[in-house]
Amino acid sequence: TPPRAAKHRKKFLVGLIVALLLAAAGTFYYLRFVAPYESTDDAFIDGYVTMISSRVPGQVIRLLVRDNQSVKQGDELLGIDPRDYQAALAQIRADFEAARSRLNQAQAQVKVSEAKLAQTEAAVTAAEAEDRRAADDLKRYQSVESRAVSQSALDLAQSQARSAAAHLAAARSQAKAAEADVALSEAGVETATAGVQQAEAKLHQAELNLSYTRILAPCPGRVTARSVQLGHYVQPGQALLTLVPAGVWVTANFKETQLACLRPGQPVELDVDAYPDRKFKGRVDSLQFGSGARFSLLPPENAVGNYVKVVQRVPVKIVFDDPLPPGLDIAPGMSVVPKVRVK
Question: Which of 49, 77, 160, 161 could link 138 by a cystine bridge, Cβ 3.0 to 4.6 Å?
């Protein structure tokens, strides 16, 4: 009947209006809360993790930290038996003092050699004067007539001239020997100086080795993954424990198809799974220049076999705007859902 048709028409109009309202609401929700954002659930809290190891071998005699304990920079974490290194330091310190004594002795020998050189140079001067006097006497005797000078006097003058020349040659030889002795003494000083420097370097290394028996915290953080126990014999480079600093950020692995709108500085809303009732604010810091697969331990080799295209993911670093509250334990590895506002 006509009233029934009108009733159906009215229901149709109401349904159409409701559908249009739902479509408008969905469109509004999409444009307001979905389209302006890029999100991913492949995101985690990240941070620098410092592995603590020993630089010298030895037995652990002090263990001053517990699991998950907070430490400050410079706090002693554990100690290695220092007795072997103390004995080595005492021996090397004695060698250093002996080297310094040899250097002092070599420097004193240089002074003695220089004094001998001055003495021989004075002897050369005296021998040169005596040689000139004897030569002049001989010339005077030779210039006088033979009847005025006896043959014996002439022979004596010639003998004295030859003796003076011989003494001069001997004095000059002694002077050259003294010069060589000075050079040898100076070389001995250089050798002793090198010995002192070598002993000093060994002494410094021994002091460092002794200081390495006290393992200190290089940065503030929390003790994690402790594997060392009291009495263990540790080797250099062996992982003993790990320090996790307080400064963390978010590493979000976005699909490469989402990167077109991502830019450094964009605001980010962060939902940490461990604290679902809290909202955190951050911003995009930087995008890694390469996909995560490219920098993995075993990068994929796409040039062999049947190739199947897989959407790659690129790590994006997101930093928190404000310092994290001290009462929240937000540590590396926790799951995060970031929403980056791109429009």
Answer: 161
